[in-house]
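ok so for the tutorial part 2 we go from a plain amino acid sequence to predicted structure tokens. step 1 is just haveing the sequence, like this:
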Amino acid sequence: MVPLGDDSATDAGVICVASGASGTVVTMVSVVLGMLFCLGLALAVMALVAVPARRAGRDVLSERGEEVVGSLRDRQLLSR
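step 2 — the prediction. this is what the tokens look like for a chain of 80 residues:
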């Protein structure tokens, strides 16, 4: 047990909290970097697959996808 006049217990608590906060920051930074990596990978796939297909005149979406996009466009125009 720590005597009441001793501040070493509170100092140790501050050190533990500070190291825990630092670990949280490192964790959040790694999560954000992972998300940015996934976004970059998705953009690379789109650039390698969808853009050349669109330039060649092929449709990127299926017929059902084109219908959904068309209905969304119509709904957006009607809401204005």
